[in-house]
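Chapter summary example.
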Amino acid sequence: MQRELSALIERDLGNKIVLLTGPRQSGKTWISRHFERSTEYLSYDNPDHREIIRSRSWNRRSELVVLDELHKIPGWTALLKGVYDTEGASPPLLVTGSARLGIHRRTGESLAGRFFHYRLHPFDVRELVGSMEPRVVLEKICTTGGFPEPFLANDPMFHRRWRRTHLDVILRQDLLDIAQVSDIRSIELLVDLMRQRVGSPVSWASIARDLHRDPKTVKRWADVLEDVYVVFPVRPWHRNVARSILKEPKYYFFDTAQVSDQGGARLENAVACSLIKALQHAEDTDGIPRSLHYLRTRDGHELDFCVVQDNSVTHVFEVKTSDTSLSPAFSWFRSRFPDARRIQLVAETDRIRTWPSGEELHPAADFLAAFSP
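The structure predicted for these 373 residues follows.
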């Protein structure tokens, strides 16, 4: 199955170094091995490949060189910078990894002007338009998650078995290699607690009490889980209402089927994954920063998500499983963000409805299949 990023990466190969990051087993290796080019694939996880990478002695007659998990090498950005400054992108270089660029920037060596970056996500409704009905895709994502292997297996039991090994590799290999975190058992407990709190603002003090740890330590662990693509935060938007917005982030899982609540929380997680994927895809292709937030005030007005571009809210969303009555929170935020599209997404409906005040109600799967910021 062709991934949507393949053609974009193909376009940029040879012009810049291409960095492709994303969760483990989201399809980075599959993409790198399915270009119609003679390819030399080198992984830092393979002991036989490490010296080739360090000595820069890969086959320069290849039409593509793929360097996987390169971020695990101390000073890897200096290595790439030296290669690009002396040889350019010939042969084309594709660098893949299962850690965020936030980690990479802390190495202190800039690759500015030398790379294009793409973030690969698991499947979502929009990527699979044309291959199956949007509602079927959304239901499967809520059942087995969007990672290609369990999604295509379409078996909840397979997903449960896959999930255990997938998370185990991340916690027991990536955290040790990248973040030097050793208290794996406590982080496993943190993941379990976060699975139960999807869609709710996180109180570090509360979680710290449950784990018998310091809140700063727990927050650092959450940052590490973000770095290795287990979770991603959605923070409150505060422009124009800064004094009334709560500060706690909400966290969502890249693997929607990780979420404990199999109802509304899983649906909200699936929507969050689709929205953040669409925003990052757009930013990676056109260079315009966009971000996903939520809206919540101290006196109880709340909407699940809002999209921000150029410091302006462009979309606000409320997510419902079956409730087609319009959320009353829209009326409060309408005057604050009059130019934003105000959209309620409902999973169990097949009708679009609109109101004279500008609000819209859409079948969730159909809207996500077509959404482009």
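To summarize the output: Residues 126-370 form one domain.
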